[in-house]
Sequence to fold (335 residues):
Amino acid sequence: LTLATATNAQTTPTFSRIVVFGDSLSDVGNLRHRMEENGVSYPGGEFNYSDGRLTNSRDTDPASDQYFGVWHEQLAHLFLKLPTSAPSLDGGNDFAFSGATTERGTRDYSIIDVFGLGVTVTIDNMGRQVNDYLAKRTVDPAALFAVWGGGNDLFDDHSSSNVTAAAGRMAMMISSLANAGARHFLVPNVPPLGGLPRYANDPEAKDAMNSKSALYRAELDASLDSVTSTLAAQGIKIEIDRLDVWSLFVRFVSDPKRYGFTDMMTLPKARPSTPTSIFSGMTYTQLRRATIKSLERQTVHSQAQQCRLGARSTSPHVPPSRWRKCLSGRLHHHG
Fold:
């Protein structure tokens, strides 16, 4: 039973593990691993972030009192009852790197204002993440492969040609994994990026990013349709659950009070930042302990409590419709 068609099922889908490729939305320590080579434990408690994650935790301000971790950790723990994926640089199954695009190879990722200095590290783009996995690990056909990217590509270059190319690269990664034995995939798209607070006072840029986000949504769907058909013709049947973050975000923003938010655009107090070309974090977060709640951390990063929107009504048997709500509560970032 596929994730996409099981939304009315009364049992949780069964997978052996979650293997993750992506950016800062999914990174649980690979960026920090590289940063520590430069003597800086970022992200971490010194910078009011969860250790290794660009989100909050129990010891941050504001804190997450009930939930910990990025979206796939909460998905694994709360809903799929699986061990969480540790950073790949520490031997785990989370290959995501903050700042990654869908390109191959590596890129330089700059953290600004760390103790008054700029620190630049080399991070792996998603194409390299997949290649590293295929080269170093045995593909598990019973695993769920989460592949989430595209936001950083649009922030770097939102031309129509690059939007189409990014969607195509996502499909190529799915094809490479499927040809090696992967069968179950979770592939979210991106929200209307013009809705990020950074564009609040720039209507032209806001409209452009919203338009190109919608284009990416359409191009990604077309690319996934194409790769599914091509693989099927080769006798390879895959299951792709497409999480429509774009439409979830539209519903979320249209009625924020329904989800417990009163402030959609207030940014958090200053902390180490990344260049504006980096879309690092796609979930939203509470930024005040009292009545003011916001959707962003560092204009794009979110907090762990957002998953509460889906987790509050869970039961021992959680269908995908429930963890979809969990993810919808974390619509936010990329990087």
